[in-house]
């Protein structure tokens, strides 16, 4: 691929929140790298002059693990990468992780940084699950409203390595009206899924999503909110609450799942 390094970097950048990505360089270098990436994203042809960019990606907050990347952009070695890990706790099998990184970087794949990052996230999540089983922590459950004029609602956003399978898309299209949940999915690499509706219905959707087979999946946003009915006609309060969701589709009264390809449009609708 002619601009493999830029494509790899764009995939990673689109997958992360602001506090999960950081450039490593001087202020002038960071400004130049950010401008180059933004210009490429807008369709500009990047400079053929080879240069290295340096950045870090947070693998797991609780474990404190960061993936430090040095990536070549431009020139005949476009996409050449070196990766190190920092913030490793004693609980992390660093030898196995480094072996996985060496294997990934030795493979000829289109997006080595993105694929290494997602696999490390999966390894960290698995390690975290083992620790959670050993020392279970009860997550606080939001109290159900005692006022019948108030409905507890929920919105969640999932990140996935990719979302292209027609089978998954058909399931979301069927589940959203069945569960009375609004859905918005961003297709491609990476994939994003957002669901919103009554608290219990969204929890049901979360469990179904997690039971599906994914290359990599993580919940990035979880928001609980309440809808307060303002008049005395409470028989359709749940229906009215759904009509006040961020994900409500114009002209539609029944919940459905909408598909889009643009990351900017997804963020505008969900955040």
Fold topology:
Elements: H1 4-15, E1 21-23, H2 27-41, E2 51-60, E3 65-73, E4 81-86, H3 94-106, H4 112-134, E5 150-160, H5 166-179, E6 181-186, E7 191-198, H6 199-211, E8 217-228, H7 237-242, E9 257-260, H8 263-270
Parallel strand pairs: 6-9
Antiparallel strand pairs: 1-2, 2-3, 3-4, 5-7, 5-8, 6-7
Helix pairs in contact: 1-4, 3-4
Amount of beta strand: 25-35%
CATH class of the largest domain: Alpha Beta
**So, CATH architecture of the largest domain?**
Roll
Compute the gyration radius: what is it?
21 Å
Number of helices: 8
The chain-level mean pLDDT equals 84
SS-based structural class? alpha+beta
Overall geometry: globular
The strand line-up of the biggest sheet is 8-5-7-6-9
Q: What is the rounded distance between the termini? A: 33 Å
Beta strand count: 9
| Overall structural domain count | 2
What percent of the residues sit in helical stretches (DSSP H or I)? 25-40%
Sequence stretches where pLDDT stays below 50 over 5 or more residues: 130-139
Order of helices and strands: HEHEEEHHEHEEHEHEH
The CATH topology assignment of the largest domain is Ubiquitin Conjugating Enzyme
The description of the largest β-sheet is: 5 strands, mixed
